[in-house]
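[retry 2/3] 3-methyl-2-oxobutanoate hydroxymethyltransferase: previous attempt timed out, resubmitting with same input.
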Amino acid sequence: MSTAKKEYKRITTKTLVDMKKKGEKISMLTAYDFTMAKIVDSAGIDVILVGDSASNVMAGHETTLPITLDQMIYHAASVVRGIERSLVVVDLPFGSYQSDPKEALRSAIRIMKESGGHAVKLEGGKEVKESIKRILNAGIPVMGHLGLTPQSIYKFGTYTVRAKEEEEAEKLIEDAILLEKTGCFAVVLEKVPAKLAKEVAEKISIPVIGIGAGNGVDGQVLVTHDMLGMTHEFNPRFLRRYLDLYTDMKNAFSQYSTDVKSGDFPNDSEQY
Ligand SMILES: Nc1nc(=O)c2c([nH]1)NC[C@@H]1CN(c3ccc(C(=O)N[C@@H](CCC(=O)O)C(=O)O)cc3)CN21
Ligand SMILES: CC(C)C(=O)C(=O)O
Ligand SMILES: [Mg+2]
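[retry 2/3] 3-methyl-2-oxobutanoate hydroxymethyltransferase: success.
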């Protein structure tokens, strides 16, 4: 009898809940395009997030607020064409779900229909409960997002650690419990104290995926371009860089330019 660990063929929302039960950590990274998604998927990353961080990373905006639902669908559809195994979760962008639950459902339906993604993510707790219910009633899985919620940046003014004070910590725990009760299959916790994040992960039975939330949670997410070292100016404490692609790419471009200008490229074997 084989003792080899069973490989998950295709990750589903249920797989993630089972992984938490078994104490297996969940890996999650962002992707916004086909080529990146294909590499991330083939590396065995469990969840691919088509994050509204595309607004920063792809489009160069200061915040996540400007990206549109149409643009998110374009990114998500490109990602879906690149994957075989990962679960694809798509951020509902700012302005596509806050007005009312019907609008939230319409936006989620557009994402599912037009991109082929597997689930949506939206920011907030109690405030978005009715919207989450509507989306779930249509059979669309929902991931929550608490703590630092970048779509509310102008309400807070900074990207500092959230829920350091007792009152905000209590609200966060309440919101996490509410998200589980409402039916979310997982929740992202962004930039909160590790001790609080661990407490939340222990209190609820759905997976808690952390970013800047310490090691006591059920999985981790990073922006792929950050962990590859492409976003040079972005230096939060929680980020671990696995490559220095900014430098490597810059050197490659510079070498190419030198080769073109010197006439070294193309050589005899690189032409017809
Ligand atoms: N490239 C990228 N990576 C991300 O992780 C990311 C985005 N973009 N865009 C959307 C949100 C915004 N996020 C952020 C933004 C800032 C910090 C942050 O720690 N900023 C400062 C500190 C700010 C402060 O303490 O006042 C830093 O140290 O870089 C963390 C997460 C996470 N998301
Ligand atoms: C940072 C992650 C959690 C996110 O929401 C995004 O990339 O948009
Ligand atoms: Mg996001």
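[retry 2/3] 3-methyl-2-oxobutanoate hydroxymethyltransferase: The chain has one domain: 13-227.
[retry 2/3] clearing retry counter.
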